[in-house]
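call fold target=GST N-terminal domain-containing protein
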Amino acid sequence: MQEPIVFYDIPSNVKGTSWSGNTLKTKLTLNYKGLPYKTIWVEYPHIARTCQELNVAPTGTWPDGSPQYTLPMIFDPNTKTAIADSANIARYLDKTYPDTPRVIPEGADAVQEAAVYAVNTVIAPIMRIVMPVAHQRLNDASKAHFKQHREMILGGNIEEWSPLGSSVRAEQFKQLEKGFEQVAQWLDAGGKQRKYFMGDDITFADIALAARLLWMKRVLGDDSDEWKSVEGWHGGRWARLVAAFEWL
């Protein structure tokens, strides 16, 4: 009998559910595949120790040169395998559970990586818009760690990145809307309106995009004026995309 996979996620006060744009990529992948799993919540200061205890290597390096341990991470008791990074997790799940829907099509690793990178690049303003609000949504145990390391990456004071109601924030939203317009053009390339990057089939690039939108929705609040404005962009396209994934 298959044991549930252990999924490591980051807690917050956002309705007691997954909220991180990174961990959501793995949660959506697990749900789409229909694989059983259980969640272990790990505060930011404890992520490095948790990864080290499972002998999982860092996924990068912080600007100060220290190893960067990140979530999502899973431990699969069925194979005694622990792995971090949402794309690597997706590849592992595709290979280990071939009877589930594949999220990275055979031979499409490079295309999927390029699509995710391109999307993240054009919607980059989302980081300064959402992160300061996310910081306030964290449990007290994680706030200082999150602030220190995000400021290490983007510089400045997180509270000054995108003040609510400011002209700076308004301009960031304009640039973000332009970024999503570019994504819409990619999806409609060749004059065909596609629901997903590969047409009717969900792939990891779609999961990554949906995770970013769900992150924004859950952090800003689904009743917030800011999120409601995003729902109206491009004929409601992004609201429909979120709706297609939110049940996962």
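return ok
The first helix runs from residue 23 to 33. DSSP finds ten helices and six strands in the chain.
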